[in-house]
Amino acid sequence: MSRQSTTNPHDNDVLMSRPGKWTLTIITMLRVEPRRFNDLKRAGGISQKTLTLTLRELERDGFVTRTMFATIPPRVDYELTALGRELLELADSLKSFADRNGALIQEARARFDASGGEPVIKLVHSL
């Protein structure tokens, strides 16, 4: 009798969503406290359209919450959820990785660019 997987095929969808250029930037900007939309826009140097799309995606995935206030003009605050705080830990780890390995990455890029993007050919002799 074969054992069937109980894994939901949609579970891998989470792994398939790669953070966009601004995802981790926004997550780190929300580190300390909730922030207003325009604060995020000014501080991050991000276009309104890109910020809107990224925040919607983060909200959809459960990383941020959006709170609307009935004021004039309308006010909208964004805040990290518990899941967003966990993603913040990952962002911090990626930052640490980049800090430790930035020079190695730059060297690898320079080698790749100098080769015109062609792979290095290694000759292996077997006896």
Automatic annotation (TrEMBL):
The keyword DNA-binding applies. SUPFAM superfamilies: Winged helix' DNA-binding domain (SSF46785). This is Helix-turn-helix transcriptional regulator. The keyword Phosphoprotein does not apply. Pfam families: HxlR (PF01638). Residues 8-106 form the HTH hxlR-type domain. It comes from the Bacteria. Keywords: DNA-binding, Transcription, Transcription regulation.
